[in-house]
Amino acid sequence: MAVWFSGLVLLPRLLRARARGGVVTGSGHWQDADPAQPAFELRLAHLLYFKVMSPAGVVTIALGLVLVPFAEPGAWLVLKLAVVALAVMVHLYLGMGVQRLGENGSPGASWLQRLAGWAPFLLLVALAALTGGKPVTVPALPPPPTLGGG
Q: Tell me, what's the pLDDT at 50?
């Protein structure tokens, strides 16, 4: 999960940096993208998305589904699965951004890229809160009626 969400955090920033034509270095300085190597960020984004993030996401979801039968039932589990579904949607949106970057050099609308950059943080906090807290949102259901009639 840590690898998948690290990619979800990093990839939007990489896509926006390529769209702006440069990157911020580790020391905090702006560095223009090298026009001689315009495909570097595209190759890096492609590698990050297809070779790192996607397999990590599949493993995370598969292991989470294996644990579902052992989980304490409740509405928190449904909410958690909904949050994971939102994380998958962010993942797929970023994949479309990688594809658009390869086709026309622009990953998409900048406000959506900014939203996709912050969404993993919010989703991760929601997942941690739901998993750690396991809030009781719906009272227990009554037992099913018996067929014995008596």
A: 92
Q: Average pLDDT by consecutive 10-residue portion of the chain (150 residues)?
A: 90 76 58 58 83 94 92 84 94 88 70 82 92 76 72
The answer to whether residue 7 sits within a structural domain is: yes
3-state DSSP assignment of residue 32:
strand
Residue 150 within any structural domain of the chain? no
pLDDT attached to residue 59: 96
Place of tokens 């912050």: 118
Cα separation, 150 vs 148, whole angstroms: 6
Domain count across the chain: 1
pLDDT at 78: 87
| CA 40 – CA 42 distance, rounded (Å) | 5
Give domain status of residue 105, yes or no: yes
Bridge partners, 30 (sequence order)? 24
Containing structural domain, residue 116: 2-20+37-133
CA dihedral sign, ordered 63, 129, 91, 86: positive
Non-local (6+) Cβ contacts of 127 within 8 A are 80, 83, 84, 87
Q: Which amino acid is at 65?
A: L
51 lies in a domain?
yes
